[in-house]
């Protein structure tokens, strides 16, 4: 998220999965966006690249979630690792 989305750490930790949304751009192509609140409590829209959405889907599947976020989903973008059940799959830590 930090690298692919150009987000600050505080933006990632303070944003829910439901902040992702899809809408058409000026050319009529559907694109994913992420609404974050950053420095100075200012809200901005971050274009989510295809690579970011693919990595998000992989991350969500690894946590047993549907590949794409749902509107209003309150789960944080950065899911907790400590205390998570089934941390080991196929003999390796995930």
Number of helices: 3
Helix content: 10-25%
Class based on secondary structure composition and strand pairing:
alpha+beta
The main β sheet shows up as:
3 strands, antiparallel
Would you list the SSEs in sequence order as H and E?
HHEEEHEE
Strand content: 15-25%
Ranges where pLDDT stays below 50 over 5 or more residues in a row are: 85-94
General form: globular
Strand tally is 5
The structural domain count equals 1
Indicate the mean pLDDT: 80
Q: In what order do the strands lie side by side in the largest sheet?
A: 1-2-3
CA radius of gyration is 14 Å
Descriptive notes:
With 94 residues, this protein is of the alpha+beta class. It has one domain (2-93). It has helices at 2-5, 9-13, 50-62, and strands at 20-24, 30-37, 43-48, 88-89, 92-93. The strands form two sheets. It has a three-stranded antiparallel beta sheet with strand order 1-2-3. A two-stranded antiparallel ribbon has the order 4-5. The longest helix has 13 residues, at 50-62. It starts with a helix and ends with a strand.
